[in-house]
Design brief:
Helix content: 25-40%
Number of helices: 5
Radius of gyration: 25 Å
Strand content: 25-35%
Strand order of the largest sheet: 4-5-8-10-14-13-12-11
Order of helices and strands: HEEEHEEEEEEEHHEEEEH
Shape: globular
Oligomer: single chain
Number of domains: 1
Organism: Herminiimonas fonticola
Structural class: alpha+beta
Protein name: Lipoprotein
Length: about 230
């Protein structure tokens, strides 16, 4: 049996006691940010100020809509947000638990994100036939007008936003923004919400690493093909 000296044991006990006495770190809280005129996250006052006043009540939330919305200069069919008895100002990356019924009041309602519904981007069929590539995406230069989700994707990709794909969902992050953009797999619904700097930096670093790996793999394949031809 290994013997432990009294001094080592005493030091270990001191460390344990000191650790137990530490206060848990306070959870980070969001401050409302303005992104393209949309406040994230927010309360009833912000929702009303942005024109989300056509509301329907459900069991414990209120869905509010507005028409005439746009995002990054691209017109949407409509926009909506969900006011709930939850604290969306709390940045703890966990499921938000609703307040108990006896704690609910209008000033406790918050929303964490805003969703937009966009029309489809229309294309010239003959142009597509001429310029079609192996990509699933249609050539954006064949579009008819600057409308729809495809044009929004184009604007994001050409203005410094990093893109991540997962099961046909697209996520966008930008180094000078604390907002994440999600384009649903339905190709019509786009959601914006505030994210922490830590999450933004982590996502962008992951995307950069993935892109670097793809480029390295492609360069290696090109090198093999070149040697096979020589």
């Amino acid at each position: 049996m290994t013997k432990i000296s009294f001094s080592v044991l005493l030091a270990a006990i001191f460390i344990i006691i000191a650790g137990c006495g530490k206060e848990p770190e306070a959870a980070h809280r969001f401050s409302t940010v303005d992104f393209e005129g949309y406040k994230l996250p927010g309360r009833i006052e912000q929702a009303k100020a942005m024109g989300f006043q056509s509301c329907e009540s459900s069991y414990d939330n209120f869905k509010c809509r507005r028409a005439g919305a746009e995002l990054l200069g691209v017109k949407a069919l409509n926009a909506s947000l969900l006011l709930e008895y939850k604290d969306y100002f709390l940045d703890d990356s966990s499921y938000k638990t609703a307040l108990a019924p006896d704690q609910r009041a209008p000033e406790k309602l918050t929303y964490g994100s805003i969703s937009f519904v966009f029309p489809e981007t229309n294309y010239d069929a003959r142009c597509i036939e001429k310029k079609r590539t192996a990509s699933w995406d249609k050539p954006i230069e064949c579009r008819k007008g600057d409308t729809g989700t495809d044009f929004l994707k184009h604007k994001l990709s050409t203005t410094g936003w990093f893109e991540s794909n997962w099961k046909m969902h697209r996520y966008y992050f930008k180094e000078d923004q604390l907002v994440g953009i999600h384009i649903d797999r339905d190709g019509k619904t786009v959601t914006i919400k505030q994210i922490s700097q830590k999450e933004r930096d982590s996502e962008i670093q992951s995307i950069k690493q993935k892109n670097s790996d793809v480029q390295a793999r492609q360069a290696a394949q090109d090198d093999v093909l070149k040697k096979l031809k020589d």
